[in-house]
Amino acid sequence: MDLVERAITVLPDIDIDIGTDTDQAGPGNETALIEATDAWWALSEAPTLAWPTSAAMNTDDVRQLAEAIAGFVLVLAEAMLNVASKSSDPGDRVACLRAAHHVGRLHAALK
After folding, report:
1. What is the mean pLDDT of the chain?
2. Are 70 and 110 a contacting pair, CB within 8 Å?
3. For the ranges 42-46, 50-54, 70-74, 78-82, which has the lowest average pLDDT?
4. In the chain, where do the E strands start and end?
5. Which helix (H) or strand (E) element contains residue 56?
6. Residue 52, preceding peptide bond in cis (omega within 30° of 0)
7. What is residue 60's predicted lDDT score, i.e. its pLDDT?
8. Beta bridge partner(s), residue 15
9. Which run of H or E residues covers position 21?
10. Please, which residues have CB within 8 angstroms of residue 61's CB and are 6 or more apart in sequence?
11. Under DSSP, is residue 61 helix (H, G, I), strand (E, B) or coil?
12. Nearest-angstrom CA–CA distance, 75 and 83
């Protein structure tokens, strides 16, 4: 979520439908940045993701968490490959492809 927040700050201003009952269009960057920050804070409250964990996790919980993270990183890899294919900047493409490579290795390590 930190990376998403940083990426949003460099986007040009966009107008998006903010999904209110009045169907107002709002400043997309500001709304997106607020939502990314709120998502980070929501995740920070997850007991399983707290560091350091005060209670030891049992083997089944560890396996389930590893599988969930592995599934999530596959989604991240797909998103990075999608961004790489659409980027006009060669440096951005290389960075996304390198990150996707590492995420793929992360996925393999979790399996």
Report:
1. 78
2. yes
3. 50-54
4. 15-17, 25-27
5. none
6. yes
7. 86
8. 27
9. none
10. 48
11. helix
12. 12
